């Protein structure tokens, strides 16, 4: 479907002062080439200035009448197909500017001719004509806009010439061509070709084939044929082999014309077109030779009866062309350093039937973008990044295109999110203007100019003398000859100046306002067209050099704001687009609210798009504070449109200036309908702001503490805000710290468990809440770590938490620093509720029962540290550097060293340490630790050590004797009699052990 809007994309027009009737013309970088249709064969060159002014630069002769011509910006050369004596020739005109400037020197040479010997410094300022010999007559040509390579279409083949530069001397560089590749295509006569970035489009009268040359490994052969499977494969409802037979097969039998079925094959399926392509490399150089293979992208076959206007024998394809879109300037935030880097982003291909045009994307994905229905038979069309210009027998038509929308998605596949948006590729195309002309015949495009050739029949000339209905100002150049008005020729070559992007954008915006209250879809459609118009201008590589750069950026933001207005005010299915468009506009929430408040409607209605935008914007961490009036207005909006969101909206940082009394009034109304814990907490928050502690306590006492902690998960902003990445506690959190620290810690644990706050954020939160320095850990944070160890379900967090609490316990013990507030949990609480805190071992308790000055300073921290080390969760290897400060800390240090040695399996080392300081604890240690695989340490280590120490003391040592007896009891019970006897000393003191040995042996027999 094509929308029709009466806009004015065409501005003034000027007549090109050609001396002879034009036959062919094309545009260069800043010039217009016009080939004469008269017997005097030549090309006139005109400089195209601002507002379409044409200044003759000169002319040069050709070999014969020009049948086709094309200009390449890369290399700045003009290539022609010329005819002489019924033979066609392919010629490239290089350095033509010297000839057009008045120089008479011309150098004619064959392609591939060695120029190093013939070229000198004195010959560099001359035009060169490069003749390219072909085995078959050239039919059509195309220059690649990316690298300047040339593609020539001949019968059953395409010949590619590579553009190259030869360095003759230090100051002389000559442009040359090299025949690099031949594509052999059987039974295929190209009518038109297009060439861009190794993409090739070929059309016959009714067929379109798009190929891509893909570079392959250099070790393959010089020739490569894309082999197509001969197995029948139904495509698109059963396309058979006979339907895809030889191209343009039309058999006239008994005055009937047999036509093949229309076919469209995309991507991999296009290989089924049965058109084999064979590549023949013809490059002379052997180094760095590039080998290619053919990738089929699209095949489409039409039939004459495809026109909606019935059967037409003149149905032929025309105007095949590629449109590249470059990466340069594709982002409105790009910088000027990327200006000269022209990286191909997207590629589009257009071709047309007399009544229908087709625009395909052939870059990353091959798909049909748009279909253009013409009101009458078209003669030719030209595609630009912003428009499609089509000429018919009576008019010049301007259609919008969707290339910028497709390219934006190629650049950013995630563009359609809550942050960014772009009008869809499937948006209906529209006709901006149908400008009447008499006899349009040919068209081409250059920047913001349309070059149009008109040829009127005899009756048209008479008709043209009548008052014209055209609205354009037809201003002829001053040097246009009009001496013989009675024999006025029936042709004209116009340069039509298209209006600036900004001017047309303004007209589209103004036009859209006529549909605001009548047809909202048309209003959005027009504003989307305006947005795509500006987006296409911004994606142009010349954007950074444009005089309209700042205006275009402002227009881009304004178009986003206008689209945001539409989606926020109109009830559309795409209401959610209000959010990304407003964000892209750069408008603040205050500015959006003021735009809405400026509307003249007495009874405000709030559509889903506006509520969607406000909800998302206010729920984010924005560094923006609404005024009291706007904040109260927001309360009213949500109370009327979405009351469930009121508690969340009130907690937004943007709503700091909201009136608490007004907020409580609305919350109470909502509570009567939909009560919730979050709503209760929000009312308590407002009560704190008002200083009403009685109301605060009433609200907080209405739910259990566990319910309140879960309520904070529903709205974390009740406790903390985030500004520029810094977590800041709210007034509510400050109050809870002083009055209900347990609830605050429980709520923070709940937030962490529900992924509402990270561990580092919680650290920052408690440090800021307690006004502690960066390196100081408040007790409330330790309480949080301990509570999280009890409740944490995230296994990966546990090792970090255990090391953190261990570090804090060690720091306090070593510094003899008591916590600034009473810990929320005792050691016993942690042991009873958490597996990570183990029961303290008896031998540890025994050692700590001895007098130790250090143990009296931080008893709770010491017991918690020992409990962690007695547990099985902590990684002792990682904890050793943390525990180092307590290595020499008396009894505490001894217990920690022995605990660490034990966890590392160093039992003998642990026994040595205990025997040196507390021999009685050694047996307790052995009874607790020496079991299973470590039981042999009893008789291999402990028994000999006790015997040795008892002998060395040579005095009554009851502790050693008692420990020795306990050890003997275990050893005698566990070992056989012979093994036990072998352990006894051989110094004659065995009699000392005999009574005890007899007792142990009897006990073992009774067991």
From TrEMBL:
Residues 503-1004 form the BLOC-2 complex member HPS3 C-terminal domain. InterPro entries: HPS3, HPS3_C, HPS3_N. Residues 3-483 form the BLOC-2 complex member HPS3 N-terminal domain. GO terms for cellular component: BLOC-2 complex; cytoplasm. It holds the Pfam family HPS3_C. Residues 463-487 are annotated as: Disordered. Residues 474-485 have a biased composition (Basic and acidic residues). GO terms for biological process: pigmentation. PANTHER family: BLOC-2 COMPLEX MEMBER HPS3, HERMANSKY-PUDLAK SYNDROME 3 PROTEIN. This is HPS3 biosis of lysosomal organelles complex 2 subunit 1. It comes from Gallus gallus (Chicken). The lineage of its organism: Eukaryota, Metazoa, Chordata, Craniata, Vertebrata. The gene is HPS3.
